[in-house]
Amino acid sequence: xxQTSVQSTLSHQTAEGALPVAKRAFRFDKSxxxxxxxxGLIGYFFFYPLAVVFNESIHDSHxxxxxxxxxxxxxxxxxxxxxxxxxxxAYSMAISAIIGALICWAVVKTQGHARKLIIAAAGVLTSTGxxxxxxxxxxxxxxxxxxxxxxxxxFHWDIYGGAFxxxxxxxxxxxxxxxxxxxxxxxxxPAVENLKVEWQEANETLGGSRIAYLRFVVIPVLAPAFISxxxxxxASGFSAxxxxxxxxxxxxxxxxxxxxxxxxxxxxxxxxxxxxALAMGMIIVCVLVFGLYALVMRVSRRK
Amino acid sequence: xxxxxxxxxxxxxxAAGFFFITPFLAAAEYSLRGYGxxxxxxxxxxxxxxxxxxxxxxxxxxxxxxxxxxxLLFLMIPTVVYVQLGGRRWAxxxxxLCLLPIVIPVVSLAIGAQVAMPKRLQSTSYELCFxxxxxxxxxxxxxxxxxxxxxxxxxxxxxxxSLGATPVKTLVLVIIPAIRSATLGAAFITFAISMGxxxxxxxxxxHTLPTWATNAAQENLYGSVAISIGSLFSVWxxxxxxxxxxxxxxxxxxxxxxxx
Lengths: 303, 260
What we know:
heterodimer; A: mainly alpha; MetI-like fold; B: mainly alpha; 14 helices; 0% strand
């Protein structure tokens, strides 16, 4: 008797409690329908191809499960390509971050039209990268380019005297800086704008020097934004393809170029899944970098 | 105390302006050089027009870019409106999903697309439209979202439906006109990215304007530089023309997102 009463109260309770739950679940389903086209498109044209890449990367040509393609990433050409891409991303990140930060520092002190113009120009430079940028630089900094000639004849500086060539690593680095530095301006400027003039005044009232202002105010305030901007630049430099492809014909050891070569059919039969493993390697690096980015943003927000 | 421009700031800005403008001026000069580097003519520009591949490549690019713009607006405007009106709980999910195309390298997507997409789709260059929709989605989402936040969306929708308009009518006759500058900004950024995209086009073996330009470079570097300068300057010209619309500026600044 007591058992049934307990049961009945239980069932009563669940029946009572279940109603809103059921209602919620129903509403959940309906509101889900509204974003279904979006989910369908991004699912089929984004997640599905990536899933295929992952699946192919862990199978050999006989459909056997294997990690050999991943092991190969740690040796020979593939290892060199990862090192090359890391170096290119790191160098272009370091140079562009410093140039971009300096420009931000100066831009926030301008007003009105000048500032709008600079920010618009930076936006344009970052978004018109790729092929046109590559050819423009080949023309300007090539052996016969105007910039090369002016530097040689007016400043007596032969840029081809050392390791530089517009078609090698250093040439690509130069071009990368030209779209990475404006990118830095765009993503770093909100942080610099948040530096309050009052802080500088407070520093002066308290007798602090310019160096003290930099050391105790500017650097601690800007550090998180600077680091996270650097991470974005790194990811952007690491995964860029078009510029490097146009400038080197795929001969410089960089991961995106190597993937491009493999896709274009320069594959041996036993390496069928090597391109997929390389692509997965790139995805892993980029996801790690963005994970770090999210972490820095979260930590800086908590402060 | 106002922030003032010191001499060091002026030097930085002038030097930066100089370094960023010079290569393009030098390239423009290069593109105007005559045969064998002698004199200056428009010969390289007319050379482009006489190439058999140029017309079809330009048309393909324009067609793909146009379809991408339509497809993306057709998909994203209703989705973003829906999320703002009733599907708020999905806003976070959509934001995260829209971030991923920026994180994942396009080259990786291309290698997957080559295997994953059905043959029938791969045989037409319209395949690229779908991937351009994915690539542009982050910027378009942000632009449209900002545009919609600036208007009194629920009030407009209520007023419209109480006057007897169907949801579709409300969308077309009320909401889209209210966010037309954001829509135009989204369309512009999609068009610009689609016209210039190279990695997917070349890896999926389609002949668009950028892939044509790289092939032409092997034959005539002057011609390739000319087409690069031509396309850069025309995009910049369009941007200056459009820059009076605030949404375009917003879209450009959003291009490389302030993430999360």
